[in-house]
Amino acid sequence: MSGNYKSGFISVIGRPNVGKSTLINTILKNKVSIVTRKPQTTRHRILGIYTQLNFQAIFVDTPGLHRKADKMMNKMMNKTAINALMEADLNLFLCEARSWTEEDQDVLDRIKKSTVPTIMLLNKIDQVHPKEMLLEKLAKLSARHNFREVIPVSARRRDSLKVLIDLLPEYLPLSPQLYSGKIITDRSPAFTASETIREKLILELRQEIPYGLTVEIENYEDTKKNILIQAIIWVERETQKGIVVGKNGSLLKRVGTAARIDLKDRLRKSIHLNLWVKVKANWADSEKDLQSLGYDL
Ligand SMILES: Nc1nc2c(ncn2[C@@H]2O[C@H](COP(=O)(O)OP(=O)(O)OP(=O)(O)O)[C@@H](O)[C@H]2O)c(=O)[nH]1
Ligand SMILES: [Mg+2]
Predict the structure, then answer these.
(1) Residue 57 falls inside a structural domain
(2) Whose CA is nearest to atom 16 of ligand 1?
(3) What b/e sequence results for 154-182 when a residue is b if at least 16 CB atoms lie within 10 Å of its CB, and e otherwise?
(4) Which CATH number do you get for residue 258?
């Protein structure tokens, strides 16, 4: 590694559902963070490590900053995002091309309070028709703040991500690699397993239920042949337990199958998965429970 090597942290910030996790997964060509069509999918700070010959960009995936943060978990999610945006070498601020909301404005207000340089990404441009409409949107965005760049992208389709990646080294400090070039995330395979199970649950369940559940890995055993995983799905109320299990266990079975297929792909081993649903009243509003369930307070 030469003395000109650069390595640093790039926080990916925005309100829920704008495509932060998708952006990191697309750049890394690997799934390091779960993605669903529902807001508040990401709950933790998750690193996606992108190592090149001359630089290492450590992307920090963050929970979407949101207004209705009554429970301790939501406060913790917002705190995680704010800390990440204050501590980064560069912030990537994502918003959706179709609309600018009050929550986007909240994020911008936070960014204005920090001294970290910010690149604005207008995401999901594949949803804008006709394309001429983009010009007006870009002009409006550029007027909102002294962004270093404003780039229209599609994280899902990879549009303009090369333009973005080429700009990154300029913002990174001279430093040897902060993480081994061999890893793409700081998170353990057991964490990946719990998140994958949660992703499948979010995709299967309606309304408020995904927000009231969390997944705890009780046992994770990597043998030569396969990986044995025992996981508990914690819900807040007895009534939710029946919904998560489903008629004759059908929903839980679908979640288990989908999670197994996904994990087999990501961990490259056959997976044995045991899922249990249990009730822990108000876990999302209890500091003690959140801590024991792996949330960083
Ligand atoms: N059409 C379109 N959809 C996108 C694009 N990028 C992301 N999405 C979709 O937007 C939804 C939310 O994506 P996520 O990556 O989970 O968004 P997020 O910002 O990480 O959301 P939270 O973790 O909830 O804060 C998913 O359905 C994605 O497939 C894009 O460029 N175009
Ligand atoms: Mg996310």
Answers:
(1) yes
(2) 35
(3) bbbeebbbeebeeebbebbeeeeeeeeee
(4) 3.30.300.20
